[in-house]
Amino acid sequence: MNKSQSTKESNVSRKAFLRYLVGGALMLGISACNNLLPHPQKLPTPKTPDTSTNKGHYGLSQIPSRSKKLTLPQFLTINQPSDEPSLPLVLDSFENSLVYERLFTVDPRTSSLVEGAAVQIEWIQPNTVNFLVKPNNFFHPTSPDTSELLPVSSTMIAEDFNIKSHSKSFFWNEIVNSINDIPDARSSNGTVQLMLNGTYSYLLNDLSSASGEIRSPYRYQGLSERSGSGPFTPVLLKSDVHSLVRNPYSAPLGKSLLEQIIFQKLDSSQWLDQLPSRIPTIWLNREPSEEDSDLIKDTRSADSLWILGMRIPTASTDKVTPGNAFLKDSRMRKALTHAFDGESIAKYIGGLPATLITGPYPGDILSTEQIASTGSLAFNRHLTSDYLDAVGYDGEPLRLLHLNLEPYLTVMSILKSQLQAAGFVIEPVPISPQRLGETLTTTSFDIALLKIGPQHSPNQALRIYGTSNQERDLHNPWGFSSPVFDTILEDAASTVLPTERARLHLKAQKALLDLAPAVVPLATESSSIWRDSRVGGYDHNAYDYNQTSLSKNWHIA
Fold first, then answer.
1. 300 with 541: CB under 8 angstroms?
2. Whole-model pTM over 0.90
3. Between β-strands 128-133 and 187-196, what pairing exists: parallel, antiparallel or unpaired?
4. Contact present, 340 and 395 (Cβ < 8 Å)
5. H or E stretch including 125?
6. Residue pair 344/414 in contact by the 8 Å Cβ criterion
7. Alpha-carbon dihedral angle through residues 45, 49, 50, 54, given to the nearest 10 degrees
8. Which of 82, 171, 253, 302 would you label with 494, given CA atoms 20 to 30 Å apart?
9. Model pLDDT, residue 151
10. Closest C-alpha among 247, 113, 114, 217 to residue 156
11. DSSP string covering 363-411
């Protein structure tokens, strides 16, 4: 690790937890909402493949084709609300994943690696990785009049990655040291080699994200975007209507599934008047105004998680104001955990029952069914009463910190009523959003109602529950730690392969259910789309993997 990088890591680590915590609470249009957790820093040396047994080579799996021969053209319309549908002349982020290919993608449902422009990964050293590029793979023609095919070669990929290295991206600036293209007899498109500044466990995750999208040097006609090699080619019809045409190289010829997508950005007046069409439709982000029996609502867990945090007065929290002494006792924390009904909170926010973490990686998340089977987070006032009797709680007020704005005020009111009905005395402590970061380390409170915002990785999301790693999480305000939990997190943080990391993250969550931590999930917010019942192969819970990989198999029944 070079000196500048080490300094950057040190500076960020001491503020990471509070930035992450505050960022989630300030997502309601407040200017300070940029205080989100930075990209992950370099972590302990990752466990790279054992070169003595498998020579460090990993072939990437392929998605089995669901295609079939068709007799009629297949079309789909995707509608998305927009306050300024005429601006700008660029692709929407949803479209980007349909248009741009990556070296590979991670299936968030299973954490497995799926091939894209690369068909094999090879670890040469822990900080040197080769990607064998798929042969017979081509960028889209940049205009209808152009038939010349431009190969997605290691040279083109290296040139695009070098452009990214001059951006402000943490990954391309701080992690990647050099990018090289290497001729390779195994593929006409060669091999791309990345040399890193040091070992970096999240290499595969970052490369499979939007930052790893591959673009050619040439731009599409009528668009400001450079061309890609993904499942669909964009054609500009109007500034607010794009046509996405099937890339024949992303599916077997003669077995093309969905042939064309019309992507429409609608203003509010268009959205209120449902657009008549015989073409199957997906509605993004907002419910159509009229009932339609052919529409199916698909819901998934979104990025935000509502939590109840408890401040434990321990020696490890000398940086913050201590909480109620009763909270040292795990039985008091269990009493609080069993005192509230998360379903009513989830219903109010239009969300889903809480999981321990949330975000775009279902394979790393312990399901609500698995959590329910343990009974650890179950609403049970009889257990609460038993625990309160055991600890000798005498009605001392618990100070409940919350933001002084909606929807926090209403959620606080629901939570307060439930806790008081279970025998607790609750004293609300309202604060302004601007003071949240300061308040978490200086103001006297015992429990706090907070909303955790977007989570860059499951590992960082789990660290809100507590860790003894004071160097990295110095300002964790809860005071909870467990050597067992810490060890699992550190093992996961040093693991390269997403499948192994997911296994450890699930193990960490199962451990939490037995530990009575100082953070309890209340409910998770949700995201929904409405799709025509005739649309097949679309999986809302797969996040952008839907567009990058599953879209190759989208079809109309």
1. yes
2. no
3. antiparallel
4. no
5. strand 118-125
6. yes
7. -170
8. 302
9. 94
10. 217
11. GGS--HHHHHHHTTT---HHHHHHHHHHHT---PPEEEEEESSTTHHHH
Structure tokens at 56: 């460090």
CA distance 408 to 242: 39
CA distance 76 to 272: 20
In sequence order, which residues have a C-beta less than 8 Å from that of residue 190 and are 6 or more positions away? Answer: 133, 153, 154, 155, 181, 182, 183, 184
How confident is the model at residue 24, as a pLDDT? 44
- Taking 3-state DSSP, the helix, strand and coil percentages for the chain, each rounded to the nearest 5, stand at 35, 25, 40
What is the dihedral angle through the alpha carbons of 514, 516, 518, 523, rounded to the nearest 10 degrees?
Answer: 70
Distance separating alpha carbons of residues 451 and 449, to the nearest angstrom = 7
Answer yes or no: are the C-beta atoms of 96 and 106 closer than 8 Å. Answer: no
Closest CA to 461 of 21, 14, 101: 21
- Distance CA(196)–CA(178), nearest Å, equals 7
Tens of pLDDT along 274-292?
A: 555 678 889 887 666 655 5
Structure tokens at 371: 């959590």
Quick check: 473 and 461 in contact, CB under 8 A? no
In a 3-state reduction of DSSP, which class is residue 338? coil
* Among candidate residues 123, 205, 214, the one with its CA nearest the CA of residue 171: 205
User: Which pairs count as long-range contacts for 185-188, CB under 8 Å and 24+ apart, including other chains?
Assistant: 186/132, 187/119, 187/132, 187/133, 187/134, 187/135, 188/135, 188/136, 188/151, 188/153
Does residue 159 register a pLDDT over 80? yes
Among 89-93, 171-175, 332-336, the minimum mean pLDDT is found in: 89-93
> What tokens appear for 424 in the block?
């607790």
List Cα–Cα distances, 469 to 476, 489, 496, in angstroms: 10, 10, 21
Phi, psi angle pair for 229, to nearest 5°:
-135, 25
The token duo for 441 is: 């380390």
